[in-house]
Amino acid sequence: MKTILVDTNALMAIGEFGVDIFSELDRCSDFPYKVAILEGTISELEKISQEQRGKYKLAAKLALSIIKSKNVKVIKSLGNVDDLLTAYSRKGYLILTQDMALKRRLQKPYLTIRQKKKVVMVG
């Protein structure tokens, strides 16, 4: 079973673009998988929900509530989230991200959101 690690910006896309990343993952994955996030991702979302305003604050709060309601597994982690996601990518985890700089560092395949509505596998 594959583990798909979801980055902060992909979770924010739920609120910003109205993307249902969970049904999109079902649609584009023809293999068994489970969804997880890093502990640092929760910290990033909490920071955004406290420090930002408007749609970013709402998107972060929505992402945090969806993480709880979907019972997404949280992987304990210390350090820079992008560095950790890169390391997990090398171990065979699939990463779902919108971050251009991070995408360049990831092992293929990885997942991204296209046209603000579809999750696609790259590589």
Describe the structure in your own words:
- The chain has 123 residues and is α/β, with parallel strands linked by helices.
- The protein has a single domain, classed as 3-Layer(aba) Sandwich (Rossmann fold), CATH 3.40.50.
- It is 51% helix and 22% strand.
- It contains six helices and six strands.
- The chain has helices at 8-17, 21-28, 39-51, 54-69, 81-90, 100-105, and strands spanning 2-6, 33-38, 73-75, 94-96, 110-114, 118-122.
- A four-stranded parallel beta sheet has the order 3-2-1-4. A two-stranded antiparallel sheet has the order 5-6.
- A hairpin with a 3-residue loop joins β5 (110-114) and β6.
- α1 (8-17) packs across α4 and α3 packs antiparallel against α4.
- The longest helix has 16 residues, at 54-69.
- The chain is globular.
- The two termini are 19 Å apart.
- The model has no long low-confidence stretch (mean pLDDT 96).
Short overview:
This protein has 123 residues and is of the alpha/beta class. The protein has six helices and six strands, in the order E-H-H-E-H-H-E-H-E-H-E-E.
Helix content: 40-55%
Order of helices and strands: EHHEHHEHEHEE
CATH architecture: 3-Layer(aba) Sandwich
By CATH reckoning, the class would read Alpha Beta
Low-confidence stretches: none
Measured distance between first and last alpha carbons: 19 Å
What would you give as the CATH superfamily? 5'-nuclease
Placed side by side, the strands forming the largest sheet appear as: 3-2-1-4
Beta-strand content estimate: 15-25%
The total of helices stands at 6
Coarse structural class: alpha/beta
According to CATH, what is the topology? Rossmann fold
Write down the Rg.
Answer: 13 Å
- According to DSSP, the number of beta strands is 6
